[in-house]
Design a protein that fits this description.
Strand order of the largest sheet: 2-1-3-4-5-10
Number of strands: 12
Helix content: 25-40%
CATH class of the largest domain: Alpha Beta
Distance between the termini: 41 Å
Length: 283
C-alpha cells in the first residue's frame, strides 16, 4: 500500500510539532517536516526549494506564521508567504490542503460560535488569518480543510499568553497570578494534545471542511487561576490589576462543537479544569 505523504510547513511551531509527532508514528504516512530553518517562506528562494520537495498527490498542512499578529508589519510579513508558496507548488496536483487558522476570524458575540458564524475579525491577527483563508479557498477550493482552534494550553506553549500556561508558570516561580479586573471573562481552552489528534486525523482522511477546535466548555480566568492556586497549595497568590479598556471578545467566547464531536466521536476532549492538576505536574 502506497504511503500518504504529508508535508508540514512550519513544523517547528507549537501545534505543528505535536502533529508531526503523531504522524511520524503512523506506518501508512511519510511525514515531511519543514521548519522555518529549512524552508523560510518569507524568502523568494523558498519557492525553488518547495518545487523540488512537493509531489503530485501530496497532502500539505500549512502552519507557517509569525503569531500573534500585533501590527501591520507582522501582517504584511505573514501575507508575503503566499506568493512564494504559490510559486513553489504551481503545476502540482495537491491531494489535500490543511490550513491552521484561528477562532479570531469570528466577530465578537455572546452567542455560541459555530462554523457557520459570520467571519468579521476585530483584530489584525484575525484579519491576517481570514485573508489567508480566502486566498487558499481560491487556490484549493474543494481540497481545502480549515482549522480554527480557540485558546490552546500545554506546557511547551511558546507564547506564554494570559491564561493557564502563564498562571502555572508564574505560581511555580513563586510569583503572583495577575488577573485583569476580577478575571471574569469566560473563555474556552483546548489542550494541545487534543488539537494535534484532530489535525493528524484530518491530515490523513478525506474530509475537506472547516472545523472549530474547542471543548464547548467555558471557564472564567478567575476559576482557572483559583484552581491552580489550590493545586499548588500556595495561598493568596492571586492579585488583581485595574482593567484598561474593554474586555476582549466582550468577555465571553463560547463554541458549539456539535460538528467536531459528531465527526470525531472516538476522540475524548479533555476538560481544562480536570486537566490542570496533570498540567501543573508537567511544568
Amino acid at each position: 500500500m502506497k504511503k500518504k505523504r504529508v508535508i508540514i510547513l512550519g513544523s517547528g511551531g507549537f501545534v505543528a510539532s505535536h502533529v508531526s509527532k503523531i504522524l511520524k508514528k503512523q506506518k501508512s504516512v511519510t511525514c515531511i517536516e519543514l521548519s522555518k530553518k529549512s524552508l523560510d517562506l518569507s524568502k523568494k528562494s523558498s519557492s525553488i526549494k518547495l518545487k523540488k520537495i512537493v509531489k503530485n498527490d501530496d497532502r500539505i498542512f500549512f502552519a507557517a506564521a509569525r503569531a500573534p499578529v500585533k501590527n501591520m508589519e507582522m501582517l504584511i510579513y505573514n501575507l508575503s508567504f503566499l506568493k512564494n508558496f504559490f510559486k513553489g507548488i504551481k503545476g502540482k496536483k495537491i491531494k489535500k490542503f490543511l490550513y491552521l487558522s484561528s477562532d479570531a476570524v469570528y466577530h465578537d458575540t455572546k452567542k455560541k460560535i459555530s462554523e457557520n458564524t459570520p467571519t468579521n475579525p476585530s483584530s489584525l491577527h484575525g484579519y491576517m488569518h481570514l485573508l489567508r483563508e480566502n486566498y487558499f479557498k481560491n487556490l484549493f477550493n474543494d481540497k481545502l480543510c480549515i482549522l480554527r482552534p480557540t485558546l490552546i494550553y500545554g506546557n511547551k506553549d511558546p507564547h506564554n499568553g494570559y491564561g493557564p500556561n502563564k498562571f502555572i508558570r508564574d505560581i511555580k516561580k513563586d510569583d503572583n497570578i495577575h488577573l485583569f479586573g476580577k478575571g471574569e471573562e469566560k473563555r474556552d481552552h483546548i489542550y494541545i494534545e487534543d488539537v494535534a489528534k484532530f489535525i493528524s486525523e484530518l491530515c490523513v482522511n478525506n474530509l475537506n471542511e472547516t472545523f472549530n477546535l474547542a471543548t464547548g466548555k467555558i471557564y472564567s480566568f478567575y476559576k482557572i487561576s483559583k484552581t491552580i492556586e489550590l493545586i499548588s497549595g500556595k495561598n493568596n497568590k492571586i492579585k488583581y490589576l485595574k482593567r484598561i479598556g474593554p474586555m476582549p471578545h466582550l468577555g465571553y467566547r463560547e463554541f458549539n462543537i456539535r460538528k467536531l464531536k459528531k465527526t470525531f466521536r472516538y476522540i475524548k476532549i479533555k476538560d481544562l479544569i480536570k486537566n490542570l492538576k496533570e498540567q501543573y505536574a508537567n511544568y
